[in-house]
Write a structure and sequence with these properties.
alpha+beta, disordered C terminus, DNA-binding, Helix-turn-helix domain-containing protein, RmlC-like_jellyroll, TransReg_Diox_bact_type, Cro/C1-type_HTH
Length: about 190
């Protein structure tokens, strides 16, 4: 993602300051992202994609490699966050897919969400617990999810997820934009 943000910004003749302002982040933080010193959350990535006027998945894939049918083998998922970071770990799925209205990820939430802020963004999310147990936390309630359980919700509701049990849970996360049937080649998260 690091070089993609810089590349897309330069293709649009945007300054670091202009992109930071449009994405709602600081110039110093954006500089760290572009230099690989910081990995943005999915919510910040969505803001960057909107500010660059590109689909979210464009930040993670080479546009020239997009395909109509994409198979992502288990061992080929692309890590989007470092294993060394204490927060949520994301792995990209179907990054080379062509026209799509949702962006899939494998999500490995942390056990402790105390320092993790609630996230919200336009669109909808679908979570499916592939392995382990997890809690989906909203400001007003908490939902415990077991292996095989799923949850579908408006992503505008502030939320965060944590793992329960000894090991991190593995969840399939689908992020869908909130377009109302408008046909565009790729989804944008406003």
């Amino acid at each position: 993602m690091i070089n993609r943000v810089r590349q897309l910004r330069k293709e649009r003749l945007m300054t670091l300051e202009a992109l930071a302002e449009r994405a709602g982040v600081t110039k110093s933080y954006l500089s760290k992202v572009e230099r690989g010193q910081s990995v943005p959350s999915i919510a910040v990535s969505a803001s960057l994609a909107k500010a660059l006027d590109v689909p979210l998945d464009t930040l993670f894939a080479d546009a020239e490699e997009l395909a109509e049918v994409t198979v992502t083998r288990a061992g080929e998922r692309q890590p989007l966050t470092s294993d060394r970071e204490p927060g949520t770990r994301y792995e990209g799925i179907a990054l080379q897919a062509g026209s799509k209205r949702m962006t899939p990820f494998m999500l490995h939430p942390p056990h402790d969400t105390g320092p993790v802020p609630f996230r919200d963004h336009p669109g909808e999310e679908f979570l499916f617990v592939h392995r382990g147990r997890a809690e989906l936390i909203f400001p007003s309630r908490t939902v415990t999810l077991e292996t095989g359980d799923s949850a579908y919700f408006k992503a505008t509701t502030p939320h965060k997820v944590r793992s329960l049990g000894a090991e991190r849970a593995a969840l399939l996360l689908l992020v869908a934009d909130d377009r109302s049937g408008t046909e565009t080649p790729h989804p944008h998260l406003p």
